[in-house]
UniProtKB/TrEMBL annotation:
It is found in: Endomembrane system. Gene3D superfamilies: VTC, catalytic tunnel domain. Coiled coil: none annotated. GO terms for cellular component: endomembrane system. This is VTC domain-containing protein. GO terms for biological process: polyphosphate biosynthetic process. It comes from Plasmodium falciparum (isolate Dd2).
Length: 558
């Protein structure tokens, strides 16, 4: 096993070197292009850039190679440890309670960081199981095998195509499998078993996407009340955001996650939380305006899951509840009852019915859990809706980025995410026709910011960071950004006129450390923020400065 692990480590180092080779050569070629333009007084730079994109050495999918490496490391660990949840698809929980640390990283170090992470934590790709990744891996091997075969003997492919045409014309569908040996006759014996893709079509290969696009809409008012409470870290400071995953083409049924983030200070003994529920896009604007009846909406969901009618039947049959009491129980959950004794009875309803017509009824445990979830969602939705209306909150900031996640399928004690291609958009408009700005709307240059660095977030259920994570952060010279927030960064850069306090990383102008042509933040805008307060708490300023590390001193990461 140690020998295999060493070989995988070597493969990982090769991936790092390939990525370095690609970027280094592209950079050198572009510099030569600039030099040529300057000497000859012409412009070939744009042509050269487009030409590089088509070059084979620039078209290597490094991200997928890291996913396959992660899969191989997982296979190695599976042979050592018994694992029961190999094909389990991870589903994000509705409530998160974990400590979080964020670090800023140069783009050139991202591949190195990912390669080192997958040795300890596998990729967590939403909607894909290990078998899906394995099918992608096998398909890649097959493609490479046939590509090598074609290079050695180009006539083989021609013969294969001729035989397939004959089969399609002369052989009936029932006998196709019997005639597949004709194809194997023209193929070397060592790959004939992998040859017929027609037979493997039953294994549908899902597209492999190493990262997922995440877009979030943050809410605040003209006085930036939420921003001020969050940056000053008031106890119970809350932030509302609406989030969706992947593209949003305006589909009315697109799932929008309505989230509330709540900050708790350490002295309270409580952990900061993130709670959320799902709302279809067609209901979002009504929800924002207070025109959506929350209880009716979720009760309709309950009815769709065939729970409402069944629960009415059981409550009326077993406990003789009146119709009005049944409706209140369904609306408010198990807390409403005639007595504490009846409340205990409701939680222990026996759903094991002798009637064969009730085969589709959900089990007692699942029904109880779903009912509790509905009740919790109703309360959360009402609280968020009330907060939006009471504080006159409206969409003010949009963030969009690609996220790569690393976590065990059956254990969320350690979770690492890396965000790249981070863009920030001014979401505020005076007259709002839609709940958010549409993709076809024109943007002014000063309404969008693109960061030239990546963001690593490490979420732990304990306060002690594993040694292997600390080693990676030290080696890639990450900057420890204490309590870094994309929302606060966007507010400081896009809505400076609304705020009194700026984040410490804006004050330090960390963006300038990451030299890049993608940096579109005007330094003059940073200078204009110099008259803003960093914070009103001197102890907080000290803790921030102590946790913002210089690039040359990464060893002090805790």
């Amino acid at each position: 096993m140690e020998c295999i692990e060493k070989k995988l480590d070597i493969i990982g180092n090769d991936i790092i070197h390939i990525d370095f080779y690609i970027h280094k050569n592209c950079k050198i070629i572009m510099k030569l292009g600039f030099f040529f333009d300057k000497v000859m007084n012409i412009s070939i730079n744009q042509w050269l850039r487009l030409g590089l994109i088509r070059e084979k050495f620039c078209n290597i999918n490094i991200d997928n190679l890291i996913v396959y490496l992660s899969f191989l490391y997982s296979l190695l660990k599976d042979n050592i440890n018994v694992q029961d949840d190999k094909n389990k698809i991870w589903v994000p929980p509705d409530t998160f309670e974990r400590t979080s640390s964020k670090f800023l990283i140069r783009y050139k170090d991202i591949v190195y960081t990912k390669v080192k992470i997958v040795k300890h934590l596998p990729y967590l790709i939403f909607g894909l199981t290990n078998d899906d990744i394995e099918n992608n891996f096998k398909e890649l091997i097959e493609q490479e095998t046939f590509a090598d075969l074609h290079m050695e003997n180009p006539s083989v492919e021609k013969k294969i195509n001729e035989v397939c045409e004959k089969i399609n014309k002369k052989v009936s569908i029932q006998n196709i499998d019997d005639k597949m040996n004709d194809i194997s006759y023209y193929i070397p014996y060592n790959i004939s078993s992998d040859m017929p893709p027609k037979k493997k079509e039953k294994n549908i290969v899902k597209p492999l996407k190493e990262s997922q696009q995440i877009t979030s809409i943050y809410f605040d008012n003209k006085d930036a009340t939420c921003y001020s409470k969050r940056i000053l870290r008031y106890e119970n400071a809350q932030l509302i955001r609406f989030r969706w995953y992947n593209e949003n083409e305006g589909d009315k049924n697109k799932d929008i996650f309505i989230e509330r983030k709540t900050h708790h200070e350490e002295w309270t003994g409580e952990v900061s939380t993130k709670e959320r529920f799902v709302l279809e896009q067609k209901y979002v604007l009504k929800f924002m305006k207070g025109d959506l009846n929350i209880s009716d909406f979720f009760l309709k969901k309950l009815k769709k899951n065939n729970n409402k009618d069944y629960e009415k039947k059981e409550l009326s049959k077993d406990y003789n509840y009146k119709k009005e009491e049944i409706n209140k129980i369904l609306q408010h959950g198990c807390d409403y009852n005639k007595s504490s004794q009846n409340n205990n009875n409701i939680k222990n309803i026996n759903h094991n019915n002798n009637n064969n017509n009730n085969n589709n009824i959900i089990g007692e445990k699942n029904t109880s859990e779903y009912r509790k979830k509905i009740k919790k969602n109703i309360k959360l939705a009402k609280d968020i809706q009330m907060m939006i209306i009471k504080n006159k909150l409206e969409p003010i900031i949009r963030t969009s980025y690609l996220r790569s996640a690393f976590q065990l399928q059956n254990n969320n004690s350690v979770r690492i995410s890396i965000d790249t291609n981070v863009s920030m958009l001014n979401e505020y408009v005076r007259k709002r026709k839609n709940w958010c700005r549409l993709s076809e709307e024109a943007l002014r240059k000063n309404e969008i910011i693109r960061l030239n660095y990546g963001i690593i977030e490490i979420k732990l259920k304990t306060d002690n960071m594993p040694t292997w994570i600390t080693n990676i952060l030290n080696n890639n010279e990450s900057i420890n950004a204490y309590k870094y927030s994309k929302y606060q960064t966007a507010m400081a850069l896009l809505h400076a006129e609304k705020i009194k306090y700026i984040p410490i990383w804006i004050h330090q102008n960390i963006q300038s450390i990451f030299h890049s042509s993608n940096n579109n933040i005007d330094n003059n805008s940073i200078q204009k923020l110099s008259d803003k307060y960093i914070t009103n708490n001197s102890n907080h300023v000290l803790s921030l400065n102590n946790n913002i590390l210089n690039m040359s001193n990464p060893s002090s990461i805790k």
